[in-house]
Amino acid sequence: MENRKRGPKSETRCGCLARFVVRFVAYTKRWHVTLFIELHNHDCLDPRLVGFLPTHRKMAEADASQMNNMKDAGISTPHIYAMLANQAGGYENVNYTLRDMYNEIARQRHHVLGDARVALRYLKNQKAEAEKGELRCFI
């Protein structure tokens, strides 16, 4: 069917000549820049928008810890994000988005469920050993 075809994706490769090569020199035990070409054939991203690139959207450990404490106190995620942005001096100075905060909360919740699964597996094994009469108490 003609109307079910996807449109072509935009071209992201532009043949940019910019290069930065660093090599480790064993006898000096130092890293050296061996090639640096600053010539770009395209417009570079505005420095204010660099924080929105996926590779730069990292939540600092201190921010994650502070977010967890505030979540435990019952503060909503958008309010936490606003407070962290206020601490950083504005939303443009925060290296992650509100969506990244929600993803971090889900990641931590999933990790807790993983710990619960391990505990349940341990208790099931204890029950099975008790039924077999092999349970030993180490208390």
Structure description:
The protein is α+β, with helices and mostly antiparallel strands and 139 residues long. It has a domain of 87 residues. The chain contains three helices and two strands, in the order E-E-H-H-H. Strands 1-2 form a two-stranded antiparallel ribbon. Helix 1 crosses helix 2. The longest helix is centred in the last third of the chain and has 35 residues. The protein starts with 18 loop residues before the first strand and ends in a 7-residue tail after the last helix.
List keywords for this structure.
alpha+beta, 2 strands, two-stranded antiparallel ribbon, 11% strand, 42% helix, single chain, 139 residues
Rg, Cα atoms, Å: 26 Å
> What is the helix tally?
3
Head-to-tail CA distance between termini: 70 Å
Mean pLDDT: 84
Helices and strands, in N-to-C order? EEHHH
Please summarize what this structure is:
It is built from three helices and two strands, in the order ββααα.
Write the layout of secondary structure elements.
Blueprint: E1 19-25, E2 30-37, H1 61-72, H2 77-88, H3 98-132
Antiparallel strand pairs: 1-2
